[in-house]
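Hello forum,

I keep getting stuck at the same step: I have a sequence, I want structure tokens, and every attempt I make locally crashes halfway through. Rather than fight my setup again tonight, could one of you with a working pipeline run this one for me? It's a single chain of 62 residues.
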Amino acid sequence: MNKNVGGIDRILRIVVGLGLIGATLLHYLPVWGWIGVVPLATGAIGWCPAYLPFGIKTCKSA
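Reply #2:
Ran it on my machine without issues. Output:
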């Protein structure tokens, strides 16, 4: 599993994921806010399965 998420994309995913989860815990959002786990996880591991079919890669080549 090669990394395909990098840089700003990765930071934004983590921030958005934490924001959604935090807003849900503080009751600003209903239960659907737990979807924030998805961008948080993909940002944390640096790999997004949705990028595969489109050949998208936002990280620099090693």
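The CA atoms of residues 4 and 56 lie 7 Å apart. If your local run keeps crashing, start a new thread with the error log.
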